[in-house]
């Protein structure tokens, strides 16, 4: 029969798109599962506007038919296509999984899947302080929670031992891990949030999260809690020396988010919601989904230099930015209004530049010539500066009144200055190492050195004020210290001057700040070892400070630095590896790079905290 009909004819017969009109929102036929209805509904959302163009109608029909085929195949495979997020009223595979899982864990306290012993978690009095500290001083940095809802869930857990799903415990422990490490390294807040150190460490809390995820079969039982846990654990994973694990978990989180449909959240519900409670819950879930997805986009795009790839294609998601809204009402506010979502919305705008930066260098198997690459880098540098100009004023310049009303605004402003400067470095990274060896890339060298000075200046201010400590402060201060170390070693000046001494002082301060962090912070201590390894080529930082030009090396020997680091530390972290070797051919040519516009002058005009009081 198959041979007589022909494979194409049989396929068309079995999987032809139904001739009836698309279903209205929330409507499904008795014989069609809700999943299929949702897919057809989504496919018909882009319905042509009666233009009468046959090609548009044909394209629409093809898209609808393709979604129908996919829906039927996914029914057989037991997969969710994810077009009905937030899965509150659908009957898709994802909804059934959530219902069955929560029903066996919610009130009984005996989960369907074994979880690590709850005795590993801190006692209530300690947990309350850490959760409060996180919601007040850290949550703005990732914005992957609706804080009132999460606090309600925590309170229910403390009061009754009840939790929604096993993976919620993973989220809970991720928040605790990030809070504890930050609290330990933020002396001002240790006084404001006094607590007795728990018996567990940030590393043990992180491991509890990972164990809980795996014992709850998180890769099969996909949950938003799992995605949130992984995304928030980035706040602590790198410091714990677990960047590799974080990267692989994050890649899994991208696919889980796509299975949930978080990458295709619509701006409004297609359901006929009747009560204020239903409307609020739908709004809440969509907004949390948007917040989480934005944070994933930020993390994915900012990690491009470490793999030369990105996992989230800008052309393959439709979820919009989260609202510029506070948790109390989730009402959209003007861009000029500070909300808990403002910071990540700003970072999202910067992150969107990074795929363009990577793609413009050419395919990995056929990289563009160095001249074209550098021209692209300079164009992206200009785009980054233009993007910074659009940032709300209160995140650029100090506003004492507003900072008095918002406890985290001051450190958010300084954190943004650090991050923006580091992204300038990120844009120039392909030519950073070469810039210390060739005059052709002097603009990159000058720009990155000025950015490094800015990073270390802001980091020193945060550390000395005892403000909240975040992983980006540590990571980017290491990057900045590396750049200034190269600058000092490669400086061709006849004698040391105040500028060089200033660089050395900044490096010493950064090294001291990294060394003073708790022993839990593997990243910080690796940074110290790396700085020492760089200066080992010239006999150490202190002896080098008294040397003349004649005693300096002609070039930086990266292999020797890496070998020394491996000797002093058994595993070379990605921070050092990211410097890498560059295969771009050296070309001695001049290119205009707006040399009259000095980075430090520009950055001070934009970010300096004393411009406006």
UniProtKB/TrEMBL annotation:
Family matches, as InterPro entries: Sec_Metabolite_Reg
Protein name (record): Transcription factor lepB
Subcellular location per the Swiss-Prot or TrEMBL entry: Nucleus
This protein's GO CC annotations: nucleus
Keyword Membrane in annotation: no
Keyword annotations from UniProtKB, A to Z: Nucleus
Organism of origin: Colletotrichum siamense
Keyword hit for Nucleus: yes
Domain of life assignment: Eukaryota
